[in-house]
Amino acid sequence: MSTTEKIATVTLGATGPTVGVQGFGAMGISEFYGDTDETAARDTLEATVEAGVTLIDTADAYGRGANETFLAPFVAAHRDAITLATKFGIERSDDPAYRGVRNDPAYIKQAVEGSLRRLGVDVIDLYYMHRHNPGVPFAESVGAMAELVAEGKVKHLGLSEVTGAELREAHAVHPITALQSEWSLFSRDVETSAVAAAAELGVALVPYSPLGRGFLTGSFTRADQELGGADIRLTQPRFNGENAGRNAALLQPVRTVAAAHGATLGQIALAWVRQRSQAHGLTVVPIPGTRKRSRLLENAAATRITLTPGELALLEPIAGQVAGDRYPDMSATAAARE
User: What is the reported pTM?
Assistant: First the structure.
């Protein structure tokens, strides 16, 4: 796929903007996956526009605002070509291990002003609640988000890591355009209730970590032996110790399918996620992240791969055999509230 071949487009949910069928997750540019080459990262961002990858996703928590600031020049140069998404709700401090979850209206109003300033924009196209604090009713938090729409600071609303019941409750306060949750060959707990609710309500699914944080690409086998520094995968149970060895063996069916298509493992993982759209009857726009132009174009090319029923059947059992949780503490995920 050359840089002049753009991916197809789709409407994000029932009433959302038109975006490329694959988006871009910018989180890793700032932290979590080791050091970044800023020149290469900016070149990768330019490749998104060339490939038609128009949904660009960030959050105020990434780099404690640094990710939004880094994106600002790119956003300014391509504002009309991209759909800009950011998130609030994960509160950070000087303690690198601290993660709070705040959904109160006062915090939301403060958070959006910070994101608008760092991104250098007057309006955010898609504004997500990054994590849900069950102690704050959706009538209050989504109500405050709806006020941002009325004020012209936000165009569309999204949620992340909520259950089907929570999505319905929030949608009743104000239409929700997109639900961003982890969804991949290794992580399918979103299918417990949220996927069906999203299909019913016309809400798009935006899968984050569709490549299993790189594990599904075969780029590493054991985080504790192959990765270093402040890499977040060192803390995640499924990538370390005996779990990692067991999970690496689960990639064999992915290799088989990849060989049949002359594709990479990552492309098969992305094709599988994209075909959840037909399987469940809703819009699905995954947001793989990368800091390399070559990998961005490789990921975009996966949108042209269609897996056969037999190949889908071969891949179907994988998630049920994965050893280890997605996070060392699952309490902030939808799975903990199902």
Answer: 0.94
